Amino acid sequence: MSLTIEEAIEWIHSRLPFGSRPGLERVEELLKRVGNPEEKVPTIHIAGTNGKGSTVTYLRCMLEELGLKVGTFTSPYIEHFNERIAINGRGISNSQLVHYVEKYQALVSEMDQQDKSAGITEFETLTAMAFDYFLDEKVDIAIIEVGLGGLLDSTNVVKPMLTAITTIGKDHTEILGDTLGKIAFQKAGIIKENIPVVTGNIEEEAFIVIDEIAKKKHSHLYRFGVDYKAEYLHPDKNWGEVFHFYGEAGKLPNIKVSLLGRHQVENAAVAIQLFYLYCLKQKINFSDRDVYQGLRKAQWPGRMEKISDEPFIILDGAHNDHAMRRLAENLKKEFPNREINILFSALSTKNVDQMIGMLKKVPNVHLYLTTFDYPRAIDLTKMEHFEDEKTEIVSLWQFGLGEILEKMSADDLLVVTGSLYFVSQVRELLLNVGGNDEEN
Predict the structure, then answer these.
(1) Which alpha helices (DSSP H) does 113-163 contain, by range?
(2) Does the domain spanning 5-297 belong to CATH 3.40.1190.10?
(3) Which pTM value belongs to this model?
(4) What is the pLDDT of residues 386-400, one digit of tens each?
């Protein structure tokens, strides 16, 4: 008897207790047992502290303009679990996911009986399933987002056509290291012999490490601001950003992306450079229209996502110091004349104090600190020292959300930010309450 989709997802989640365990031994063993699909799927591999998800989306949308079948493997999910493994933006179907779970249950059970391969994690299992699915569906290209780091991440089993490193910031320092150089070393682990690598706007301390590894691997490196450039112009009058792109093919003027924030211009530039290199490598003719149309269509839930005009609500999963700094900068530049209400929660493993400090410096801000239903969510009893005239603690985020919406005027802004898991929960409620559920 076939599993239900709920039972299939429950089995996948049953691997969560094994946590995050850097290393390739287990995933390599599982992939071997299913015929090494990762060796037969053409891939582009993308790492980075932040910006991976939107870069994947920008690139996917441009490649789709060429009529290609594009697989994507991303995390975490915002709307549906199935979206982590997708083709042309559509998550794997329930029936297909059940099929792969039933295929993998026995294999994983066998591996658990052996010391060397026991305890394969949820992410490792999903990685193998993704490659299996992409091979079965005969995708033209799969864009693979690194889960954590790069060197020892389970996605690093691929032999990609291209690689990219979007940004380097301090996150997961207990695993990746406590300096930008150490973190860059881990991210640069995805660089492969003679395979081109594109880097985003990366600080010199981190870039030096990446450049050194690229040279050792004889990998041609394309650096943001040197080998290709983006000139920020202004916010779009409706939503998003406008910029010029400069690359080997010349200038692409007045490109619009639908996501807000100057960092989205940098992410889009990485994607354009990857798109250009892919077309060159595959000898595919493309037009400027493919770039313009693809980028205009790109949407990425939970990343500077406007989900309502009245009241004005933005969701942004700024889940670490690097991303929160960008969010604070964007709020200052984009909304200097608005009263800003921020509903924030995060995981206790993050540098919560520093993130809150950045938000409190945003002008005209009122900050609501809360928690949510997740094992590692912050403990509000440890947040009391932040309370002041601009900051209050709300035990239930649903009540805090209701309080903010009730008192907001037409000119106010609500920003929901912090953990992507938190943003996902708030997003689901807001869309359901607002009746705006056409995307689901």
Answers:
(1) 122-136
(2) yes
(3) 0.89
(4) 999 999 999 999 999
